[in-house]
Amino acid sequence: MCFRPPTVNKPIKCPSCGTLNPSNLKLCKKCQEALETEEKKESKDAEK
Predict the structure, then answer these.
(1) Among 1, 3, 4, 20, whose Cα sits 20 to 30 Å from the Cα of 47?
(2) pTM for the full model?
(3) Among 6, 31, 10, which Cα is nearest to 19's?
């Protein structure tokens, strides 16, 4: 039997204060600044 560990998303670093936040949050848990997710980064790159 093969055990596959669950996938773990990398924490997101707040661009404002540098706090590491779980990837499921949209706002920083410390300063409440909006976090930039991978989806936002990809859409910004596509616009260029």
Answers:
(1) 20
(2) 0.60
(3) 31
Q: What is the pLDDT along the chain (48 residues), one digit of tens a residue?
A: 678 888 888 999 999 999 999 999 999 999 999 998 655 655 566 665
Evaluate whether 20 touches 12 at the Cβ level (below 8 Å): yes
Which structure tokens are listed for 38?
């991978």
Task: Identify the residue whose tokens are 């930039």.
Answer: 36
Q: CA angle, 33 as apex, 12 and 37 as ends, to 5°?
A: 35
Tokens of 35: 């976090």
Measured distance CA(12)–CA(30) in Å, rounded? 13
15, amino acid identity: P
